[in-house]
Amino acid sequence: MQQRTIRKSVALDGVGLHSGKPTRIVLVPAPADTGIVFRVAGDLIPAAPESVVDSRYATTVGKNGSRIQTVEHLMAAAAGLGIDNLEVHVEGTEIPATDGSARPFVNALASAGRTDQSAKRRPVTVPFPIRVGTDNRWLMIVPSDRFRISYTLDNDHPAIGTQTLSYEPSERRFIEDFAPARTYGFLKDVGTMRKNGLARGGSLDNAVVVGKRGPINGLRYRDEFVRHKVLDLIGDLALLGRPVVGHVIGRNAGHDLNYQLAVAIQRAAGLERRAVAARAARPEAATTAARVNGLLPAPASL
Ligand SMILES: [Zn+2]
To answer: pLDDT-based confidence at 194, cuts 50/70/90?
Structure first.
């Protein structure tokens, strides 16, 4: 599969979900092997696990004091549409909240058109199962020949309860079943979050708000909550900059665990690359293995 970017620049305005401040982004085509890069106040911040500076409530990337909050829904939209390379010019400190989902980013990217590039994609495979988290909140990835997510959200609130679903990437399924799922919050937490500088731009227009008796502003899907969890996970894993091949299984995770898994995958893939490189550097090891397997005769001198 070839890498992709967009055909022309496209802008999107809004407010930041957490900062509550006006913000504007311009999505700009980028050359092959650029990945997704945020440009803010003269700094270039690559979308990568090593750029993450905060993963509570939202994923924030930063460099040299510049910070971009809430990158995950835009990242998910790019991943869902198979866009590898993009420059994101940000005026403000946060990606627009839009309607709390990834749909407006999907629409913006689709309106810009897409184009294949000469370089090939380089998927990341995991050589062994990896798990992060605790007994109740965890994520794992196991080797598989394709990318899949199986997710369980188990919440005490009766309006949420236990919601389970699986995702296998197809552009249509992403656009129809996952991109429109909105972020959510509990009415009882709004006061504390605002005191901590979070959810200041949050409103009934950009989040599902769950009150005592359930969502006070209606749902797009009966299980919109778990769909949004999967959307966030797709967006956070997109920080790896390469498509992940493996089966991700999760329960009650959040941005912090998504980030930990991305780091663990990166590390495991790096270790695997080093192991292959080490084997290549020691041809005698390969010869011994072939001999053990009966592929080569033992040398006469031994
Ligand atoms: Zn989200």
So the answer is: confident
The verdict on whether 228 is a catalytic residue reads no
CA of 281 to the centre of ligand 1 (A): 44
What 3 state SS string does 191-229 have? Answer: HHHHHCCCCCCCCCCCCEEEECCEECCCCCCCCHHHHHH
Contact 35, 84 (CB under 8 A): yes
Summarize the confidence of residues 238-253 as an average pLDDT.
Answer: 97
Tell me the pTM. 0.88
Domain boundaries, the chain: 2-276
- Count other C-beta atoms under 10 Å from residue 127's C-beta: 14
Give tens-digit pLDDT for 92-124.
989 999 999 999 999 999 999 999 999 999 999
DSSP secondary structure, 102-129, as one string: SHHHHHHHHHH-EEEEEEEP--EE-SS-
Nearest to 180 by CA among 38, 86, 80: 80
Q: Which two tokens stand for residue 158?
A: 């009766």
Tell me what pLDDT residue 297 has: 41
Q: Does domain 2-276 have CATH number 3.30.70.20?
A: no
Distance 272 CA to ligand 1 centre (A): 31
Nearest in space to 231 (alpha carbons), one of 99, 125, 120: 99
Q: For ligand 1, an ion, list residues with CB under 5 A.
A: 183, 232
How high is the pLDDT of residue 131?
98
For residue 265 the two structure tokens come to 């995958």
Give 16's strand partners.
96
Instruction: Point out the catalytic residue in the list 18, 73, 247, 255.
Output: 255
CA 66–ligand 1 middle distance (angstroms): 21
Q: How many A from CA of 72 to the centre of ligand 1?
A: 6
Q: Which of 72, 108, 86 is nearest to 33 (CA)?
A: 86
